[in-house]
Amino acid sequence: MKNQILKSIILSSLIPSIITNFSYPVFAQSKSNNSPSSPNFQGLLIDIKNSYDNFNDSNQLLLTKLEEESKKNPPTTDIEGVETKIKENYDKLVTSVSNLKNQLSEKEKRELDNLLSLLQTEKENELSLKAFSKLLEDGRLDKTEICESIQIPLGLFLSKNDANCGNFNNKTYGKLSGFINTQIEAIDKEIKTVEKLPRFGNNSEETSGQNNSSQEDNSSFLILWIVNLIIALGLIGAFIGIYLLNKKIEKENHKLYNHIEKTENKIEELSERNQNQSKQVTKQDAQIKNLKNKNDSLQKEIENLTSQINNILLKVNPLEKQYSTHQTQPQNEIITDENNELKPELEEQTKSEPEPEYLRLARSYQENPHNLVQNAIRVSMTKETLNKILAGTWEGIVELEENNRQGEFYIVNNNSGQFYLFLDPDTKFNVPTLQNINKSQLFICKGNMSQGFKGNEIHIIKPAVVQENNNNWRLAESGEIQLS
User: Fold this and answer.
1) Which helix or strand (DSSP H or E) is residue 168 part of?
2) What is the distance between the alpha carbons of residues 354 and 26, in angstroms, rounded to a whole number?
3) Beta-strand runs (E) in 27-73
4) How far apart are CA 336 and CA 338, in angstroms?
């Protein structure tokens, strides 16, 4: 708003001069007669200014387009439809400066050397306006041009062999926009220096001519300044009104900024609450995991007790048969059939418990691991989990993500909807990887951990149990492996 007011003041300040020239043609005529060569040089200077404005506008339009491209994900490699007028406006600017230089004296020509140097100088391994304008002749920037002609000269990459060289990212846009704006400002400064040449100022002869003209028509000159004074007073009143309006707008903006600040504070408070809730959920997940581990331990104890009971029943059954021979016939009919075999009820008691599902899958893995995992989901630990394990800030939560190329584990789904984790039989598990697996309790490692093993060389006693967690997987129960 302040810039607009300033422009209005400058424009309005020219009104009296305009009125002066049109209202008093004698005065304007005497001025033009005393400087017959000025219109040619002024025209050349105006041509330079117009060429500079067009060149600046086309560069700013290009920067707007490139900023949009730099925000894309993934970063754009081939940028189509860039500003094609930059090269044309650059050539016009160089031509207009050269035309003016050709009309000046040898002493004055030196004042334009800095301006032409900014436009035409090309240094090896550095970006220049001339080289940059050439890149845009075809209206596009491909990956090679971005890498070799922009990013490397700007110092973003040391060589074109860098994997990211050629991707027009946010950092590249920042460096390029800084370079272009710096060059544009330097050109504008040099043009303003040219404007200060005596060739474009009022010389002594013009001043003398104007004084003579004003002396010839004193009454007209007095009337002229009276009109100027009236216009100036009117402009002052208008400027005061604009100033008061600007103050009111600033007050409203201040209220708006305060409201925005309060809203941002509320957002921060809600973010902190969300983080606290996330921490609580993490703690609860850890507690649930501990409870599951305790439950698994109890199940193991129950299995051991069941096995002991079955062994006892196997020892008791022969004694029951011997005892049954001393009983009466009715009792024998209850216990045995005609072939002296156990009744189905006793047979069911003597049968052992069914084999757990994870043992069956573990045995299948040992027999033919590739057959078991051929339709499984390939995963690896997330970078966040690995970083926490390496930094010692691990909180007991292991996250896994799908990785079809470099995953070290496979998730196998059984018929009951349970998900089990197995090692990739073809992956070489080195010592640091085994230590991370053991430290995270993804698998409890038993045996020698001083050397690496291939996945199919490791005996899986018990596979780990995992559960789906949003788009990833989370460890629910540790597995157990035996290293030879």
Assistant:
1) none
2) 119
3) none
4) 7
Phi, psi of 59 (to 5 degrees): -65, -40
Is the dihedral angle over the CA atoms 162, 166, 167, 171 positive or is it negative?
positive
Amino acid letter for position 140: R
Q: What is the pLDDT of residues 48-95, one digit of tens each?
A: 889 989 989 988 988 888 888 888 877 776 787 888 888 888 898 899
Question: Which pLDDT score is estimated for 3?
Answer: 61
Residue 260 phi, psi (nearest 5): -65, -40
Is residue 389 over pLDDT 60? yes
Q: How far apart are CA 91 and CA 93, in angstroms?
A: 5
- Helix, strand, coil percentages for the chain (3-state, nearest 5): 65, 10, 25
Q: In this model, does residue 25 exceed pLDDT 50? A: no
CA distance from start to end of the chain? 78
Report how far residue 326's alpha carbon sits from residue 322's, in angstroms, rounded to the nearest whole number: 8
- The verdict on pTM exceeding 0.90 is no
Q: Pairing relation of β-strands 472-477 and 399-402?
A: antiparallel
Quick: pLDDT tens for 133-151. 888 888 888 888 889 889 8
Phi first, then psi, for residue 461 (nearest 5°) are: -70, -45
Task: Give the DSSP H/E element, type plus range, for residue 224.
Answer: helix 218-324
